Amino acid sequence: MAIWLTLCGTVVLIAYLLGSFPTGYLAGKLLKGIDIREVGSGSTGATNVLRTLGKVPGAFVLLIDGLKGVLAINLVYVLCNLAPSYNLIPLTINLEVWQPYLVTLAGFAAILGHSKSIFLGFTGGKSVATGIGILLALSWQVGLSTIGIFAVVVAISRIVSLSSISGAIAVSILMAIFHQPLPYILFGIAGGLYVIIRHRSNIERLIAGTEPKIGQKVETETEQTA
């Protein structure tokens, strides 16, 4: 049991470190020599990279941050596929029950890592791109549906934060619609709430009518939690 728990803990830790990889921060440093946390919204996510560095860097950061989520979940799948062959799973463990909970823990770890990166003094982004990658790895139906909702809202409103919040609200509903396991539904609820909380400054600007649309710059230049 001790070996199995150690392996599971290691996978969750690696998932956190994957989420922590500071893609947006490195893009700012390498392309313009700036700390992206000190410009725009202060976020290291793809939206702030788009506003600050341009479309290509923004798309690249979006892709890599999404892949971080995919890799985090697939680490669990690899462990659960290999463990039986090496007799690493205790007889008291039902892998079919255990795996969804371990997947959920790894997903939370990756989301937390993206927003509270150990490499950036526990600052970071809002975990939207990483969250989408996680959803695609958990259930491609839920992932694609969430992307679809995001795309429709952003096409209508031209506001990325509103689209992200809409997607976050929809996730738990989509998990239920597509008959996902209870741990995944709980992940959708808790993960969605976390993403919404990370957007609290955006919500304030949305209410005030000052939230920028695509192509506009954020008025506040020093928001570290945006």
Describe the structure.
There is one protein chain. The protein is mostly helical and 226 residues long. 70% of the residues lie in helices and 0% in strands. The chain is built from ten helices and no strands. α4 runs antiparallel to α5, α7 packs antiparallel against α8 and α8 runs antiparallel to α9. The longest helix has 28 residues.
Structure, briefly:
The protein is an all-alpha fold and 226 residues long. The protein is built from ten helices and no strands. The longest helix is centred in the N-terminal third of the chain and has 28 residues, at 55-82.
Pick out its properties.
single chain, 226 residues, mainly alpha, 70% helix, disordered C terminus
- Quaternary assembly: single chain
Strand content: under 5%
DSSP helix fraction: over 70%
The geometry reads as globular
Q: Describe the largest sheet.
A: none
Layout of strands and helices, then pairs:
Elements lengths: L1 H19 L2 H10 L13 H8 L1 H28 L12 H21 L12 H11 L1 H18 L2 H18 L4 H17 L1 H9 L18
Helix pairs in contact: 1-4, 1-5, 2-3, 3-4, 4-5, 4-6, 5-6, 5-9, 6-7, 7-8, 8-9
